[in-house]
TrEMBL record:
This is cAMP receptor protein. InterPro entries: cNMP-bd_dom (IPR000595), cNMP-bd_dom_sf (IPR018490), Env_Response_Regulators (IPR050397), HTH_CRP (IPR012318), RmlC-like_jellyroll (IPR014710), WH-like_DNA-bd_sf (IPR036388), WH_DNA-bd_sf (IPR036390). The gene is crp_1. Keywords: DNA-binding, Receptor, Transcription, Transcription regulation. Residues 149-217 form the HTH crp-type domain. Residues 15-129 form the Cyclic nucleotide-binding domain. GO terms for molecular function: DNA binding; DNA-binding transcription factor activity. One of its GO terms (cellular component) is cytosol.
Length: 224
C-alpha cells in the first residue's frame, strides 16, 4: 500500500481543505503515518485520545458499545475522512472504539502536540472552527437520515453517495452487516431493501455480491 505525503492527505481532507498553507504545514510537521492490519484496534472506547486521525487508504470502523454489549457503527471512515477529531480538540477520552476494517494507512496528529499548538496558535484554532462547523452539519444530516427517513430512503441515499465505475458497478466499502448497523437497520432489512430495488430494476445484484446501478434517476428519487 503506497502512502501519499502528509501534506497531500491533509489537502484531501474536508476538515483541513479550507486552511491556508501556513497552518496546514504546522499540522503536517507534527503528523505521523500509521499502518494497520485488518482487525487491528486503533483505540478503545474510554481510552485517552491518542490524536486526530485522517484516513489515507483503507477503511476504519468507528463504533460504540452499549452497556448490554450492543454495538452501533458510528462511521465507516474511508480515504479523506477523519475520526477522533472531537476528542482531540476537546482533549477528553475517545467516546468510541476504532478498528481497521481493511488494511489501512492513517495520518495521525498526536494529541499532545496538537494541544500545545492550539494554546499558542489562534489562527489555527479559528480555521479549525470553520472546518468543524461543516463536520457538525454532516452529523445533523446523519441524524436526519436515521430519524426522518425510512429504510429504503436511507439505503438509496447511502448507495447514491458511493463511487461507481462506468458500468454503474458499486463496491460496498464494508460488510453488509456493518453498513446496516451504520444506517440503524437490521441486516435483514438492509438485504430486503436491496432485493426490492433489484425487483424494481433499479439495481442488479450479482452472484458475487457486487451491485450494479441500472437506474440512477430512480435511486436518486428514493434518496431525496
Amino acid at each position: 500500500m503506497q502512502s501519499r505525503s502528509p501534506g497531500d492527505v491533509l489537502q484531501s481532507c474536508g476538515l483541513f481543505r479550507g486552511m491556508d498553507d501556513l497552518q496546514r504545514s504546522v499540522l503536517e510537521n507534527m503528523s505521523l503515518m500509521r499502518h494497520f492490519k485488518t482487525g487491528e484496534q486503533l483505540f478503545s472506547q474510554g481510552d485517552s485520545c491518542p490524536g486526530l486521525f485522517v484516513v489515507d487508504a483503507g477503511l476504519v470502523r468507528v463504533f460504540r458499545m452499549g452497556q448490554q454489549g450492543q454495538k452501533h457503527v458510528l462511521h465507516l471512515c474511508g480515504p479523506g475522512q477523519t475520526f477522533a477529531e472531537v476528542a482531540a480538540f476537546g482533549d477528553f477520552p475517545v467516546p468510541a472504539s476504532a478498528v481497521a476494517a481493511q488494511p489501512s494507512t492513517c495520518l495521525m496528529i498526536p494529541n499532545d502536540l496538537l494541544q500545545k499548538e492550539l494554546v499558542a496558535n489562534h489562527d489555527l484554532c479559528r480555521q479549525l472552527l470553520v472546518g468543524m462547523s461543516f463536520w457538525v452539519r454532516h452529523f445533523v444530516q446523519l441524524l436526519d437520515d436515521i430519524v426522518l427517513r425510512d429504510a429504503t430512503s436511507r439505503v438509496a441515499r447511502y448507495l447514491n453517495e458511493l463511487p461507481r465505475d462506468a458500468s454503474g458497478r458499486i463496491e460496498l466499502p464494508a460488510t453488509k452487516k456493518d453498513i446496516a448497523n451504520h444506517l440503524n437497520l437490521s441486516s435483514e432489512t438492509f438485504s430486503r431493501v436491496l432485493r426490492r430495488l433489484s425487483d424494481e430494476s433499479i439495481l442488479d445484484l450479482t452472484q458475487s455480491g457486487s451491485i450494479r446501478l441500472t437506474d440512477e434517476q430512480s435511486l436518486s428519487h428514493y434518496g431525496l
